[in-house]
Amino acid sequence: VRLVESGGGVVQPGGSLRLSCAASGFAFSETGMTWVRQAPGKEPEWISQINGIGSSTDYPDSVQGRFAVSRDNTNNILYLQMNSLKSEDTGVYYCVKGFSIGGVRGQGTQVTVSS
Questions:
Q1: Furthest-apart CA pair in the chain: how many Å?
Q2: Fewer C-beta neighbours within 10 Å, C or N terminus of the chain?
Q3: CB neighbours of 10 closer than 8 A, spacing ≥ 6?
């Protein structure tokens, strides 16, 4: 299993970013995926989930309406579109295989929201 996140960076409050996660080594289109965020000094939290075929998604209240998860099962890529970013969205973002926060994850990509 290999997961490689990209797309992080520094953005001003109110800005947008799109994260990507390239997946390999497993049946991606049959596997639900989760985006997990870990802010400095805090426990990791899930911020989006999507089922294998992309027909069902879920978000916690903290990002509902601002973030959108999607997937390209042809190219084995998971996406996270993040809009209206806030300072509290700062953290390292990981894509995780499956629906458990403790599942296999990539190396993460840093997102910093700051003016």
A1: 40
A2: C
A3: 112, 113, 114
pLDDT tens-digit map of 57-107: 999 999 999 999 999 999 999 999 999 999 999 999 999 999 999 999 999
Q: Please state the separation of Cα 26 from the chain's center in Å.
A: 18
Q: Enumerate residues 6+ apart whose C-beta is below 8 A from 26.
A: 1, 97
Torsion angle of alpha carbons 55, 58, 97, 72, nearest 10°? 40
As a whole number of Å, the end-to-end CA separation of the chain is 37
Cα dihedral across residues 107, 3, 113, 102: positive or negative: negative
Percent of the chain with pLDDT over 90: 99
